[in-house]
């Protein structure tokens, strides 16, 4: 049975019967159409007629508009088996630990970049700035892909580490392997290895599927196991994109009053990846 929370009511002034006005509450999940009639005086005279979706609006642009730019935060990070690492990082950021540096290491897609950007520190990606030319202050800093620093960048990070240590500052870094194995200057490698070091493990497919199901349930969005499996096989695999797609799917089904089906998912994913 449709609930009031899951329905939208559309008023129409085009009834063939001049004495009655049809009201259509639409349940986005099962799309059951409930029709009942009421006297014109039973609904507000200032009720707005639902405007149709503009037919000339490019579908691809609609999908791009729907996909949200969700900023990475500590709250929207899906920990999976990394609960201990996340707790340690949150404690360090809150000042529970006095170590100058905190190093996260893990494979691509494990979530290191997400946590660095969520830290609130000045974020620098060595993949884009290997010399750290963009670093202009001695404040707290988060350096991603440390293994890609060139010689100038390694010297700059070494000096920045020393300044932070003298001022009780904090340095958050991320690499693809533990600092001891990085091909960096010995002095920098030693500095990074002297602080807290935690590994981030990539989520398994099962953990991603469970997270997607939970996020969909929070939005009262019905995703069958087959739908989740389809997303896992055809959508980008990083959890941030998958989570954003759930938000976009929720908005799209509400706006178009369509249930989540495999053809719908196929349509959206095809449009999203079309050049």
Q: Could you give a quick summary of the protein structure above?
A:
With 275 residues, the protein is α/β, with parallel strands linked by helices. It has helices at 59-66, 83-93, 112-118, 151-166, 186-193, 205-218, 225-234, 239-256, 262-273; strands at residues 7-11, 21-27, 36-38, 101-105, 122-125, 141-144, 171-175, 196-199. The strands form 2 sheets. A 5-stranded parallel sheet has the order 5-6-7-4-8, sandwiched between helices. Strands 1-2-3 form a 3-stranded antiparallel sheet, with no helix packed on it.
Low-confidence stretches: 1-60
What is the C-alpha radius of gyration, as a whole number of Å? 25 Å
Label the CATH architecture of the largest domain. Answer: 3-Layer(aba) Sandwich
Distance N to C terminus: 41 Å
In CATH, the topology of the largest domain is named: Rossmann fold
**Biggest sheet descriptor:** 5 strands, parallel
Task: Please characterize this protein's 3D structure.
It is a single chain. The relative contact order is 0.14. The chain is an alpha/beta fold and 275 residues long. The chain has three domains: 39 residues; 83 residues, no CATH class; 117 residues, P-loop containing nucleotide triphosphate hydrolases (Rossmann fold), CATH 3.40.50. The chain is built from nine helices and eight strands. It is elongated. Strands 5-6-7-4-8 form a five-stranded parallel beta sheet, with helices on both faces. A three-stranded antiparallel beta sheet has the order 1-2-3, with no helix packed on it. The two termini are 41 Å apart. β2 and β3 form a beta hairpin. The protein is 38% helix and 13% strand.
């Amino acid at each position: 049975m449709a609930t009031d929370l899951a329905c939208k009511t559309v008023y129409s002034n085009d009834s063939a019967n001049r004495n009655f006005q049809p009201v259509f509450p639409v349940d986005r999940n099962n799309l059951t159409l409930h029709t009942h009639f009421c006297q014109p005086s039973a609904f507000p005279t200032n009720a707005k007629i639902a405007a149709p979706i503009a037919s000339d609006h490019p579908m691809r642009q609609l999908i791009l508009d729907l996909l949200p730019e969700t900023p990475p935060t500590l709250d929207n990070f899906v920990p999976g088996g990394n609960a201990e690492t996340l707790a340690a990082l949150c404690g360090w950021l809150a000042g529970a630990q006095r170590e100058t540096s905190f190093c996260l290491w893990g494979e691509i897609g494990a979530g290191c970049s997400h946590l660095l950007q969520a830290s609130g520190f000045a974020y620098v990606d060595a993949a884009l700035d290997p010399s750290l030319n963009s670093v202009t202050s001695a404040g707290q800093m988060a350096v991603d892909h440390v293994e890609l620093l060139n010689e100038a960048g390694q010297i700059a990070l070494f000096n920045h580490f020393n300044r932070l240590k003298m001022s009780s500052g904090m340095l958050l870094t991320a690499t693809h392997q533990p600092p001891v194995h990085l091909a960096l200057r010995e002095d920098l490698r030693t500095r990074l290895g002297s602080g807290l070091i935690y590994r981030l493990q990539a989520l398994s497919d099962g953990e991603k599927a469970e997270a997607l199901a939970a996020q969909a349930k929070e939005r009262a969005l019905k995703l069958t196991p087959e739908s989740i499996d389809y997303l896992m096989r055809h959508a980008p695999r990083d959890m941030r994109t998958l989570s954003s797609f759930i938000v976009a799917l929720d908005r799209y089904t509400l706006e178009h009053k369509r249930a989540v089906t495999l053809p719908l998912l196929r349509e959206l994913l095809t449009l999203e990846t079309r050049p």
